[in-house]
Predict the 3D structure of the following.
Amino acid sequence: MSNNKKPQYDSELVDKLASHISAIIELLGEDPHREGLLKTPQRAAKALIDNTSGYNTNASQLIKQALFSHHSDQMVIVKDIEFYSLCEHHILPFFGTISIGYIPDGEIVGLSKLARVVESQARRLQVQERLTADICDIVEENIKNKGVIVVCEAAHMCMKMRGIEKQETTTVTIQYCGQFKNVELQQQFFNLINLNKNK
Ligand SMILES: [Zn+2]
């Protein structure tokens, strides 16, 4: 991932967002002009832009750049891809890991691209269910395959901070298609990603 590149910001967008964030700080009863908060609206604006940068990406395009022919139909797994997203109901973070498995049908994708696909879908206002389903659909549609499976494990700050979710709870969502409808194949995938490693 190109995380070492310094991001370029649209200064007009940063200023617009910052003025709204400043207003929010004031509405919350704080003084946006006190020393500690002086640069907060600009910083928070840039953080929001970073955390929603997925809107400027094209996940299908990311995959198409790195397809290679391949003549095996054994399962390919990229597991524990770390992601950070924003819950669309509270605009609070939810984060965790995503594991993707697929059975190639003549082609494979460069492995780092799957992490980029995760990032492109996570960095926007999301719900975990859609994040999981969309990644599955994108892989399904853009790589010739006999089946795709995606498992997402996440912790939601909107649940934890409000005390609805206990500290150790994670939410697991799953989406699959093709040969992964077969329970034995699913089990093989779960064994390989070792879903219960933290328990
Ligand atoms: Zn929420």
Q: What stands out?
A: The chain has seven helices and seven strands. Residues 7 and 50 are 8 Å apart (CA to CA).
